[in-house]
Every structure is written in structure tokens, then in C-alpha cells.
Amino acid sequence: MKYRKCGHSGVFLPEISLGLWHNFGATSDFREARAMILTAFERGVCHFDLANNYGPPPGSAETTFGRILHDDLAMHRDELFISSKAGHDMWSGVYGTGSSRKNLIASCDASLRRTGLEYFDVFYSHRYDGVTPVEETMQALIDIVRSGKALYAGISKYPPAEQQRAYDILREAKVPCLLSQYRASIFDRSAIETNFRPAAANGSGIICFSPLAQGLLTDKYLNGIPPTSRAANKDGFLQLSDVTPEKVEAARRLNEIAASRGQSLAQMAVAWLLADSRVTSVIVGTSSVRQLENNLAAIDSPEFTPEELAAIDEVYKNQTRR
């Protein structure tokens, strides 16, 4: 594994981190979840990314991780960098969502209980909810860090104005933002264009999730929609309507570029993000050890030539014009 320095801190993270958004909840195969986590650790992946609502059902991914940590990795706690977040829907009711002080602090406590941890290495505000003042949310993160429940604070998916306000508040309190987490991929460049520059300028590390666009940047949908795929699951995040003919055709063209580089499409998609020197780490979500190992091979990718980058950009521009 290769590691990168996280912003202006002394923390180093693996270029590829393992996210537990999908496939680690109570409805997933525990043996496969355990195998993926242990394989990742054996391959040098020391960062595991959680959130209070990961499952399904919400909370169960943290419980699964806590069980594996207790049974298999307890002696390695100081070798691990474990993150969690709060802010999205956890349960129905007025206090089951949002970025209020009440929700963040209560959620952090509950996440620590589920995982069996004494502290998180970083705890994020999972989103700006559009209601809670940024000052209130950041003060909650500051207090979580100062109480010892987390070593560092982070933000996820904050719009540019609120992002900068968060940095300013945290810096003034001498609890600088360690990590800024954003969705980013060859197909989704919004955060790259609007959020990466201020994050880097403020000394925050940048960590990307959904690098494979929920599977669109793999070979999974090149010849139809498999019955076991996320798009085939009516309750999944990726819907059938997302698998458009334009996206499939773009993926096929990108797959050809990847093949010419001796890579799978998924490996090239991860490598494309890592080619940005501002990126600290890329979070992959996997459903099997085989898929995990395929993604981890992205760190051995050859450098992109200017021609390859131009070809990738042209595919992206063509599918957005349609």
C-alpha cells in the first residue's frame, strides 16, 4: 500500500480506504464482510470509513465492524484509522437526523457503543443540513474532539460557502479540519470543480467516495443490468433510471481506454482520482474479496499520459452534452 500525507497534519492515510456504506450491515453476509475487512488490513488498508446510518438497518455496519474489531483486530487498534459520521437519517423522528449539536454528540456516543471503541480517529459532520447554523455544528465537533471522543474533526459534502465557514471556525478553535469528504468520479466532477481548491488551500486532506459511480464505472453494466446488482435492487441507492444509454456507452468507451492501459475500468477510475495530488485517499466499497483485490491493484497503475487524460475528458464531455 502507498500512503499520502493528510493536508497540513502529520497523519498519513492509505491511498485506498475501505468504506462500509454497503455490504456490511445486518442483512449482508458476515463471513464475507469479515474477509473483506481482514484482507484490506493485511494489504495495508488501515483506514475504515463508517457512519451512524450505514447498514441496513442503520447502525448495523458499525456493529459488524465492532464485532470484527473485537474478535480479530483488537490488538491492532493503534494501527487503525477509524472514522464515523452523523447527520443523515438514522431513525424517524425529530432527533433522528440533522446536524444539530444534540444529534451529533448523541450520535457519536451511540457509534462508540456500537463499535466498542473508546474514540474515533476522525468524526465528521456528514452533511450541512440547511437548517442548523454552521457555528452550532462545528462547536459540537470541537467539543467531541476536546472530550477525547475523536482525535480529529472532518466535514462531508459541505457546499463551498459553508465549507469555508467551517474551516474558519475550526481553525480559530485550534481544531483544524483534518479531512473533507466528497463524492467524486470521472462521471461526477462537481466537488472537484468547486470544493477541492478551498479544501487544499485551507490545509484539509481530501477523501473521495463513490469513485466508481455506484458501479457505473465498472464492467458490471456494460451488457445489461445483472439481477444481483445495485441497480436491480429497488431499495438501492443506484436506480435503474441512473443506468442510462449515455452512461453505458461512456463506460464502454472508458473501458476501452482502461484495457489499453492494462487495467480494469474500476482500477482506472480509482487511479484517475489518485492522479490529483490534492487527493489524500479514495474510499472504495466492495461486495467481495475478489472485488476488493481488483480495486487495490489501482495503486500500481501506470501514470496517465496527456493523451489518455484528454480521451477520458472527451468521453465525459460527450455524455454530459446528450
Task: Describe what you observe in this structure.
The chain is an alpha/beta fold. The protein has one domain (3-223, 265-302): NADP-dependent oxidoreductase domain (TIM Barrel, Alpha-Beta Barrel), CATH 3.20.20. The chain is 40% helix and 16% strand. The chain has helices at 30-42, 60-73, 101-115, 134-146, 160-172, 190-194, 196-201, 245-260, 265-274, 289-296, 306-321, and strands at residues 3-5, 12-14, 16-19, 47-49, 81-86, 120-125, 150-156, 177-183, 205-209, 279-284. It has an 8-stranded parallel beta barrel, surrounded by 5 helices. Strands 1-2 form a two-stranded antiparallel sheet. α4 links the parallel β6 (120-125) and β7 (150-156). The protein is globular. The termini are far apart.
Concise synopsis of the structure shown:
By secondary structure, the protein is an alpha/beta fold.
State the end-to-end distance: 39 Å
What sequence of helices (H) and strands (E) makes up the elements? EEEHEHEHEHEHEHHEHHEHH
As for the number of domains, it is: 1
List the total number of helices.
Answer: 11
Poorly predicted parts: none
Output the radius of gyration. 19 Å
Name of the level-1 CATH class: Alpha Beta
Q: How are the strands of the biggest sheet laid out side by side?
A: 3-4-5-6-7-8-9-10
- Helix content range: 40-55%
Total DSSP E strands: 10
What does the main sheet amount to?
Answer: 8 strands, parallel, barrel
Gross geometry: globular
Structural class label: alpha/beta
CATH homologous superfamily assignment: NADP-dependent oxidoreductase domain
Mean pLDDT: 94
In quaternary terms, these chains amount to: single chain
**Strand fraction band?**
15-25%
**Could you say what the CATH architecture is?**
Alpha-Beta Barrel
CATH topology: TIM Barrel
